[in-house]
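User: These chains co-purify. Model them together.
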Amino acid sequence: MDKKSKSLSKNQKIVLDFIQKNKKPVKAYSILSNVQKKGINAPPQVYRALEKLIEIGKIHRVESQNSFVACKISNCDTPHKTVFSICNSCEIVSEINDPKLFKNLKDFRDKDGTVFDGYNLEFFGTCKSCKNKQIENTKH
Amino acid sequence: MDKKSKSLSKNQKIVLDFIQKNKKPVKAYSILSNVQKKGINAPPQVYRALEKLIEIGKIHRVESQNSFVACKISNCDTPHKTVFSICNSCEIVSEINDPKLFKNLKDFRDKDGTVFDGYNLEFFGTCKSCKNKQIENTKH
DNA sequence: AGGTATAGTGTTATAATATAACAAATTTTT
DNA sequence: AAAAATTTGTTATATTATAACACTATACCT
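Assistant: Joint model of the four components:
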């Protein structure tokens, strides 16, 4: 049994469920309006669930978007160590799981030798699909 | 002459000046209240200046804090490629300029081979000074 | 099982962060 | 000097997030 899978509360389940259903990251108030039929009425209920879900690593916060996305890494035991690629055009976000990069970041320490508890890395660019669309549009 | 140093507008100078005076990152509304005596009256004036200063690389946005900090890298010609260390305790932010890490990030491409225009990396931990204070407090 | 500590809930109000929209002034380019 | 582009000043409002408080459910302990 996984220590982290203590079982979520009602609101935590509702919020996680909604986030997992979405391929793209979702915003807090979008979550709110989508789960009101399930009995979540006010922002603090959403933000509390988000806080907990982030803490246990089930979701991540995409800082540059103020949005939230489900962790895609199975059996994720490393909350607060995240790498994303973000398309500047369609804003789609993918979680990156690159062992070499992961190791580089994990082992990094600064000039003082400080070790870090966590990190968040966001790459920005144009995703393949958007790049293709741009090329389409160039053809007169 | 540097292409980027086109000369800043009045509000841009005022805002940059204030950010550069501060060792810690500053928040937009803190900037506003501190430059009101210089004739900047409303949020949009601050946010516009911030937007431009970020664009030209004079300042960076610390995403996890919604705050803004002057670029510490002399002759910075790489806006949107930033690495910070952030103390969880005192929230002080240092810009990291590590050639090896820089190269790793610059050269990184994802599974599709996509090259990225930029990135933002934020490391979280406890800075030396805060760690020392914690040890002090342990000594009954 | 009963007591108590911990975590979660529901609610109202409000704080903090950020942008839209528009008219006027300034600077840059031609 | 006219046209174009940028910056300004302003009001209003949108978006994101938290404080505070009373209450309820769950876990945990001997």
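Residues 62 and 113 of chain A are 28 Å apart (CA to CA).
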